[in-house]
Amino acid sequence: MIASLYVEGRTPFHRLPAGAKLLLLVLVGIGLAFLHSPWVLGGALVICAMPYVLLRLPFSETRRRLGLMVLTVLLLGLATAWFESPLAGLVACLRILALVLLAAAVTATSEIADMMAAVTRAMMPLERLGLIKAQDVGLALGLALRFAPEIAGRHQALVAAHRARGLKPRWCHILPALIVLTLKEADEVARAIDARGLRGHKASDR
Amino acid sequence: MSSRDLVLIALFAALVAVLGMIPPVTIGFLPVPITAQSMGVMLAGCILGARRGALAFLLLILMVAIGLPVLSGGRGGLAILAGPTAGYIFGWVAGAFVTGLLAERMVRESQNGPRQILGFALAALVGGIGVVYLFGTLWLAYAKGIALPAVLIGQLPFLAGDLLKVAIAALAARSVMVGYPLLPQRG
Amino acid sequence: MGQGLRKPLLEEDDVVDIRFSACSLSYGERRVLEPLTLDLKEERIGIIGLNGSGKSSFARLINGLQVPSSGMVTVNGIDTAADPAAAAREAGFIFQSPQNQVILPVVADDIALGLTSRGIGKAQAAEQVGAILRRFGIEALARRRVHELSGGELQLVALASVLVTEPSLVIFDEPTNQLDLRNRRKVADAIHGLDRPAIVVSHDLALIADFPRVLLFHEGRLIADGAAAGVIRAYEQVAA
Lengths: 206, 187, 240
Fold this sequence. Notes:
Chain A is mainly alpha-helical. Chain A has helices at residues 12-15, 18-33, 38-54, 59-83, 86-109, 112-128, 134-164, 171-195.
């Protein structure tokens, strides 16, 4: 139900490891903040857009992924041009768009499992500091993906139940019921995790 | 962290993802449609408390980062976290934390209904609007070079809808406290 | 179901030893289980009683999900209070609603998690997952999304996810509660054909009717203990 934004393909960007792409994105994000010349930023935009352009996504797909954001960037750029200077507006637009397009390409060329592995590796220093357990992060992510469709189904059932009784489904009625029904499951799911020994380190924490 | 906390955090992140799939509502006098998802910040803080609420949103951001379209309108991926509105999204973590911190201190299970609703509303107002807008503003104005007046004016159309969300979230949080209390309480 | 599952395969070393010594359980003021001393060694044990009689708590005490308020429970010599994690490894537990114990989105990933979280490598885990899916005749479910499964399929996946870790015994908490007739039969077959001891908490009296030992709980006390037929008669009197 939650379909990934990954796009199959064999572009050079697909072949880069996910961790390297994430690191590249962070470095480019920092680097762009130091550039102020519209000519240099324009060049950066062209370079950053290349991996995304090479994906050859249909226009409708690009609009779905980035349309709203590009619109926001343009509006904010125009407003900045009005309040400060046209140059400031242009610089802000170029800088944001360059990073956004590069980020969109990283997302489209990296599979969820590879991203997850990269994130888990990135968290190992935190685990060594005793702040989190990387294994728990993976488990929490799996749980969220497992139960999101059930929660969506429950939401639809609540809306249907309201309609069946001739009531208009309102957030203030549906939300509490949805939340209570969802969170009440937590006890049993937690017991199952402990009973199956899925967190290794302990069976019960109560 | 107990397994129960871990599961509560994951279920709440999933719930917020589901809130993003509910179509936005247009209300007569409001200029922009309002989405249920950002109400999740207020709800997470008021229902799970500071720590678990903030962790639920960290998990949501992780889902966005690895490329899952869990934000309202099917948005997701790193582009969102690099884009103009990323400040608000990172602000959700801090917002849920502050909302929870205030709710844990102001709301007691022994209080009467109106008192609890008022406490939740105050917590949601400060954490869910104040903190989130602060992060969003700082990000746009200082990290992205957008003119500050443009940022402030751009936010105005959303403010009315967010105030409405405070009211709904406070009512919902109070119902949940009656039905299934989870909020840690501190003096 | 594979035919191999139908015949009991228990051997000497499959027998377990569960001991309750003056074990009681309370939630705050409320006594859920009166002090109980008991030895369980049979390969099939049924647990029956009215709602709220303490039978589920009794089952949870065996794998360390609950620890006794007083006294002690040991499973194959492991004190459940001292090492609940070890007790949980010894006694697998199948919950009433399988939808809450299958916790990853894809069937094979969920089953593998029980192995990888115990430090078993990915390749070996995949092999064992394949074997257990074949054993239950549900290979076709391997890459399926959990939320698309039927109740009966979910119950079998839950059972596979527990059995893949090779517990010494399996506890079932009302396993046929929410199933239609066909799925009930599948699960009943799986329980009867299980190659290791099973403890079954159930309202489904037909499921336990041929068990060598059945315990009847009533208001937190064990009031009957013996072969199925006699204990079921006692239950009918209590329920009347």
